[in-house]
Amino acid sequence: MGITIHFEGRLKNEESYNTLVKKVIEFSSFQEWDYFQFENESVTLKRVKDEENVNYEGPTKGVHIQPHENSEPLIFEFDKDLYIQEFCKTQFASTEIHIKIIELLEILKEYFECLNVVDEGEYWETKNYDQLEEHWENFYIAMDRTIQENSSLQGPFKLKSGRIIDLM
C-alpha cells in the first residue's frame, strides 16, 4: 500500500565501503539527520532472492540513518561480501524526504558494482515531482478508503525497529 524505496547491490571493494560511509555521514550531517555507525559480529538478515526467503547469517557493518521521525530508518547494512538488500518506507514523512533519499542513493551508486533501486514513488526512474506527488495522494486516498471499509483498522504504527505498519 505504501511508498517504499527498495535497494540492493554489492559494493566494488572495501575502499568503496569506506568512501560510502564517509559520504553517507556527510550527507546525513548536512541534512541534520540522526545517524550512527555499527558493526555486528553475527546477525540474521531476512532477504529475498528469486522470490524466495533467504536468510544471511554472519557479520554486518554499516550506517543507520533516521531521515525523518515519520519515515522508516534508512539502513546501509552490508554483509561480509559487501552486499546489501534494504528498503525505506517514506509515505508518512514527505515527498522532500523521499527525494533526499533518492539523491543520496544517486551519490552512492558509483561505489557499487551494480545498484538496483525500485522506487514505488517512481522518482528514481523519472525525477518527476508531479508523478511522485500523485503517488502520495493516491496512497492517502487508498488508506482512507481501506479505513472506511474496515473501521477497526488503525495506523500507522511504528515498531521498536523503526519499521512502520500502515494499518492493523
Spell out the blueprint of helices and strands.
Elements: E1 4-11, H1 14-31, E2 34-49, E3 52-66, E4 74-78, E5 83-89, H2 95-108, E6 112-119, H3 123-126, H4 129-149, E7 157-158, E8 164-165
Antiparallel strand pairs: 1-5, 1-6, 2-3, 3-4, 7-8
Number of helices: 4
**What's the CATH architecture name?**
2-Layer Sandwich
User: What best-fitting shape do the alpha-carbon axes yield?
Assistant: globular
Find the CATH topology. TATA-Binding Protein
- Average pLDDT works out at 97
Q: For this structure, what is the CATH class? A: Alpha Beta
- Please give the alpha-carbon distance between the first and last residues: 12 Å
Characterise the protein shown here:
This is Group-specific protein. By secondary structure, this protein is α+β, with helices and mostly antiparallel strands. Helices cover 34% and strands 38% of the residues. The strands form three sheets. Strands 5-1-6 form a three-stranded antiparallel beta sheet. A three-stranded antiparallel beta sheet has the order 2-3-4, covered by helices on one side. The chain starts with a strand and ends with a strand. The model has no long low-confidence stretch (mean pLDDT 97).
